[in-house]
Amino acid sequence: MLDITRDKPVKVSVKVAVPVRDHPKFNFVGKLLGPKGNSMKRLQEDTMCKMAVLGRGSMRDRRKEEELRASGDSRYAHLFEDLHVEISTFAAPAEAHARIAYALAEVRRFLVPVSAQTVHQLPDPSLPIYPIGFCWLFLCCPFSACRKYLK
C-alpha cells in the first residue's frame, strides 16, 4: 500500500523479459548496451532509472557464467533466471511510476528485433521521390547496394 499524501520516496523495480526464445539468433544484449555501453547509459540518463541486463546469457564469457552459477553465491542468483532487464528508480510514488512507464516504453524499442532487410527496404511509394544518389540512411549505410550511387 502506498501513502501518496506524504510523497515519501519509494523504490519501484520492474523486471522486463527479453524475448530470446522467440528470436534466438538476435543479439539483444549488444543492442541494449550499445557501443561501450553508451546506449544503456543514455537510457538511464533520459529515464532517470537504473537499468541492468541480468539472467542467463547476460555475461560475455559463458564459461565464467557457468562457474558463477555453480558457486551458489546469492549475488549470482539472477543467472538461474531467463534473460531480463531490471529497471529501478527511487522517487516519490507518482514520479517513480511515471519514470518506470517512460523507461518501459524506451526499452521496448530495443527489444523489437530489426533485420538488415527491414531497415533497407524500399520506402513507401506514397513518399516523395528523391533523386538518384540519395541514400535512404543518410550516407552512412555500409551495404554495397546503397553505396553504389556514391561512386
Q: Secondary structure elements and their pairing?
A:
Layout: E1 10-17, H1 28-33, H2 38-47, E2 50-54, H3 62-71, E3 84-91, H4 93-110, H5 116-119, H6 144-147
Antiparallel strand pairs: 1-3, 2-3
Description:
By secondary structure, this protein is α+β, with helices and mostly antiparallel strands. Helices cover 34% and strands 14% of the residues. α2 (38-47) packs antiparallel against α4. It starts with 9 loop residues before the first strand and ends with a helix. 9% of the residues are buried.
Describe the structure concisely for a colleague.
With 151 residues, the protein is of the alpha+beta class. It is built from six helices and three strands.
Q: What structural class do you assign from the helix and strand content? A: alpha+beta
Biggest sheet descriptor: 3 strands, antiparallel
Rounded to an integer in angstroms, the radius of gyration calculated over CA atoms is 21 Å
Inertia-based shape: globular
Low-confidence stretches: 136-151
Helix content: 25-40%
Query: In percent, how much strand structure appears in the residues?
Result: 5-15%
How many individual helices? Answer: 6
* SSE order, one letter for each helix or strand: EHHEHEHHH
Number of strands: 3
Task: Calculate the mean pLDDT score and round it.
Answer: 80
